[in-house]
Amino acid sequence: MAAADPDQRREQLTAAPKADEHDADPRIEVTERPGGVTRIDIAETAAVRPGEPPTADEGS
Questions:
Q1: β-bridge mates for residue 42, sequence order
Q2: Residues 36, 45: contact at Cβ < 8 Å?
Q3: Who is most buried in 1, 10, 20, 54, counting CB within 10 A?
Q4: pTM for the model
């Protein structure tokens, strides 16, 4: 599968009425390793990360 054109991706992710530029920020980090191994991690800067939802004390 070919990678999406970055300009088309940004345009699509910011087209919604309440969208802003941060909606198009990278959400994953891909690392190619020797032996054909590909590692995919959630970016530290991703607005939404997997795991437990925040409690009311932690905010959103």
A1: 28
A2: no
A3: 10
A4: 0.51
What does the pLDDT look like over 8-51, one tens digit per residue? 988 988 999 998 888 888 888 999 999 999 999 988 887 777 77
CA 55, 45, 48, 34: dihedral to nearest 10 degrees?
-120
Please, what's the b/e burial string for 35-45 (b: 16 or more CB within 10 A of its CB; e: otherwise)?
eeeeeeeeeee
> Of the candidates 48, 1, 22, 18, which has an alpha carbon nearest to the alpha carbon of residue 10?
22
Cα(42)–Cα(45) distance, integer angstroms:
8
What are the distances in angstroms from CA 52 to CA 22, 36, 41, 45, 48?
22, 32, 17, 17, 11
Query: Encoding tokens for residue 53?
Result: 């939802």
